[in-house]
Amino acid sequence: MKMHIRNYRLVFFVLFFTGFVLNLILANQAQAQRSIKRNKNKEVEKEVEAPKAKDGLKPYSEVITDKAISKTGLFTVHNVEGKYYYEISEDMLGREMLMVTTIAKTASGIGYGGERTNTQMLRWDKNDKNILLKVVSYSNTAADSLPIYNAVRNSNLEPILYRFDVVAKGKDDKGWVIEVTDLFSKDVQALGLQKSRRTQYKVSRLDTDRTYVERISPYPTNIEARYVLTYAASEPPSNASTGLITVEMNSSMVLLPEEPMKQRLADRRVGWFNTRVTDYGLDAQKASKRTYLDRWRLEVKEEDMEKFKAGELVEPKKQIVYYIDPATPSKWVPYLKAGVEDWNVAFEEAGFKNAITAKDAPSPEEDPDWHPEDARYSVIRYFASDIQNAYGPHVSDPRSGEIIESDIGWYHNVMNLLRNWFFVQTAAINPEARGTAFKDEVMGRLIRFVSAHEVGHTLGLPHNFASSFAYPVDSLRSATFTAEYGTAPSIMDYARFNYIAQPEDEGVHLYPEVGPYDKFAVGWGYRPIPEAKTPDEEQAILDQWILEKQGDPVYRYGRQGNPYDPSTQSEDLGNNAMKASDYGIKNLKRILPNLIEWTAEEDKPFKDYSDLEELYGQVLGQYNRYMGHVKTNVGGVYEIYKATAQDEAVYTHVDKATQKEALAFLNNELFASQEWLTDNDITSRIEDFGVLDRIRKLQVTTLNALLDWGRLGRVIENEAINGAEAYALLELMDDLRKGIWSELPAGEAIDVNRRSLQRAHIERLEELLTKDATGRSAASLNASQSDIRPAARESLTTLQGQVEQAIPRTANRMSKIHLEDSLERIKNILDQD
Q: What digits encode the pLDDT tens for the residues 429-462?
């Protein structure tokens, strides 16, 4: 029995061991099969994985596949299933380019299609396995041949706008391939919504799910990228419920000339938009500024050089061309074109004929690749906007000042502005200006004027506010004079239309034209000087051209923005503001009684009085301009630019007689009763309340400007320098007080407008006595230590005595109450002080 048991155990052990060994063999076989399968899979993976070059880049064919849509141009651009690649050749690395970014399409309230948002100079550089897009600046410069060049470079490290991985070498191993999709679909601020608008609309982020590249199109000298950006914003200006802002942008990358245009150095005696740099390479013992003109590259053809030198007009190598936006209403196109080509007469002074022209934009059939955002084309863009304006910018090469392109912005509603100007300035003598809608021929002529003005900006000319001061006032009433010389020597002034002409001045010219200053300036800036090889060699010749016109006001330039020079004012005409304003006011007094009739329309009997209200406001506004022109003479200082060799003063005070004439005009005109301006037939149709406040504002605005800290400071300085020849501070204060309070000696009744004015006078004297200086002159005028406070106290003290004497002899009850109140005000001010 025991033997049987042992046998069973032996059999069980043999069977168990055999099974174990068999399982082990089977497991090893399975593991071996899995290992073989993994190895086979790895071999398959090795076969699928794309081979890489030694430098780690993919083969060209693996990146730019057979699905690529490729176009050649400045760079070759590839679209591979929605991803965009630039293939950059070696010779384009290091070349400088301009990136001009504009809004192509936009939501309501966020700019206008065609509006430029940014311009920057760029350069593509290679760094190891990356391509860097750098922002280049020439604000600090030196010739690369000079030792200081490296120091300038080391102090002006160029910011990197974007870094791209090189993904492959170019075709045939030439150049480099990078993917640029993210440049236009990520939040690169320089190519998207401006910082100011991001802040205004409280933009939090770019919504990449709603952002994409529309297209990228290469051309021989530029690449156009069109892309749609969507931002999350808590306060969008339109479609607020979405919390989004979507804009379609266009960025034009334009190759700059390898050889920059020769610079022409600026001179402040001739107005010009310019580029200013700090040139550390100049032979000077300080960091010197170098300023050169922004201008188009107009060059004489080699075969025409002898003709040019002989004084014959020649056509330039390359004409300046402006295209008219296809969105422009067809009836205005001829007038916009005429405004462009009006400048040919000025370019003749530079020796060129047919230098500038305007063309219709090509149709899609004629040129499917043409579009107005393309920086190769200069375009007069027509905006569907209620803004009453137009503007004329330009894009220039910062290395030389060469203007590359310009897009003039033309807002549809500029026509309403033109109507208002032409009506209020000429309707008294010009039947064509009467009414709320002009004939197309009349409006067309006004459009031509503005077109020419804006084109002037794009040629490099800023506003010349001294121009309108050049002609004697009465010459502007002469038909023969204005026919020959226009209404101002420059169309770049804000001279507008001839408000001086009177009804008896038949045939007098009403419009500004491209004038003698414009011709001189264009000739000075554009005429080639073949005998001069460098900008510095040109200077003596350019200076001589200026000196030939020395002392002639027709050829003087005066900057915009000087509020103290009565000869450089906006919207003025003639060399005497008092005389010119008197003529202008006579015309306003002719317009106002006819305003209801001239704003009515027989075919619209059910229209409201909105046109009447608008043009009544224009009359008041024009009257206020006249007062501003006169006011600037008080404490005024002429600024007439000179060079050191001329050895003359740049700044001279307005003479005493003119200042006194100006203040007397204001006392007799503005500060007197204004019953003619408060026409009840008009005001009863447009408002239930507020006409008196309109007049109060007119008077008080000018009063406070007369007693401005800076103006009084200049009066004090003039007296200190010129003594008895100057209009003294106390004399000014006395003349003003006597004019504003002229009723006191005789105890006359004081009307409601005068009472408001007199209270304002007391309040302004209080400010001068108790407050610190404010405004432009605050930094250079110490209120507590100047003569202004003692003069204000003296004026209040004198007024106190005069009011006390006038109260008993004033019979009118309201006038007496007003004087008693004024007396208490003065006492409180003096007691407090």
A: 999 999 999 999 999 999 999 999 999 999 999 9
How far, rounded to the nearest angstrom, does the alpha carbon of residue 791 sit from its chain's CA centroid? 42
Q: Encode pLDDT of 61-116 as tens digits.
A: 999 999 999 999 999 999 999 999 999 999 999 999 999 999 988 888 887 777 88
Strand partners, 85: 78, 179
Measured distance CA(280)–CA(95) in Å, rounded: 23
CA–CA gap between residue 381 and residue 392 (Å, rounded): 10
Q: Which residues contact 53 (CB under 8 A, 6 or more apart)?
A: 59, 169
Q: CA quadruple 522, 527, 532, 534: dihedral positive or negative? A: positive
Share of the chain above pLDDT 90, in %: 78
From the CB of residue 200, how many other CB atoms can be counted at a distance below 10 Å?
Answer: 15
Q: How far is the CA of 559 from the CAs of 463, 555, 687, in angstroms? A: 7, 13, 40
Q: Per-residue pLDDT tens for 319-348?
A: 999 999 999 999 999 999 999 999 999 999
Nearest to 784 by CA among 726, 723, 833, 715: 833
CA 579 distance to own-chain centroid: 33
Q: Crossing angle for the helix pair 788-809 and 729-740, nearest 10 degrees?
A: 30
Of the candidates 636, 638, 769, 640, the one whose C-alpha atom is nearest the C-alpha of residue 715 is 636
Q: How far apart are CA 360 and CA 673, in angstroms?
A: 55
- Residue-wise pLDDT for 106-141, tens only, equals 888 887 777 889 999 999 999 988 999 999 887 666
Mean pLDDT taken over the chain: 90
At 384, is the pLDDT very low, low, confident or very high (cuts 50, 70, 90)? confident
Distance (Å, whole) CA 817 – CA 509? 52
Measured in degrees and rounded to the nearest 5, phi and psi for residue 739 equal -70, -45
SS (H, E, C) 694-741: HHHHHHHHHHHHHCCHHHHHHHHHHHHHHHHHCCCHHHHHHHHHHHHC
In the chain, what's the furthest Cα-to-Cα distance? 160
CA-to-CA distance for 398 and 400, rounded, in angstroms?
Answer: 6
3-state secondary structure of 381: strand
Domain ranges of the chain: 1-49, 60-255
Is a pLDDT exceeding 60 seen at residue 2? Answer: no
Residue type for 197, please?
A: R
3-state helix, strand, coil in the chain (%, to 5): 45, 20, 40
For the whole model, what pTM was predicted? 0.87
Dist. CA 592–CA 269, nearest whole Å: 42
Strand 140-141 relative to strand 176-179: parallel, antiparallel, unpaired?
unpaired
What's the average model confidence in pLDDT over 643-660? 95
Strand 356-360's sheet: what is its strand order?
Answer: 356-360, 320-324, 378-383, 407-411, 390-391
- 3-class SS at 386? coil
pLDDT at 160 over 70: yes
DSSP annotation of 258? S
Higher per-residue confidence, 407 vs 628:
628
Rg (CA), the chain: 38
Q: If we measure between CA atoms, which residue out of 418, 632, 317 comes closest to residue 426?
A: 418
pLDDT at 26: 47
In contact, 223 and 85? CB cutoff 8 Å: no
**Cα–Cα distance, 324 to 331 (Å, whole number):** 12
What 3-state class would DSSP assign to 101? strand
pLDDT of residue 22: 45
